[in-house]
Amino acid sequence: MSDLNEIGERDGWRCWLCDAPVDPEASVNSDRGPSVDGFAAAKGKKGAVMVERLAHRDCNTKKGKIAPVVAWSADLLVVDPSPIVATVDRLSRKGGREVIARCPSESDAQEASDWLLDRLSRFVPGMALSTSIEPGGGQYMLVLRAG
Question: Where are the domains of the chain?
Answer without folding.
Answer: 4-63, 84-146
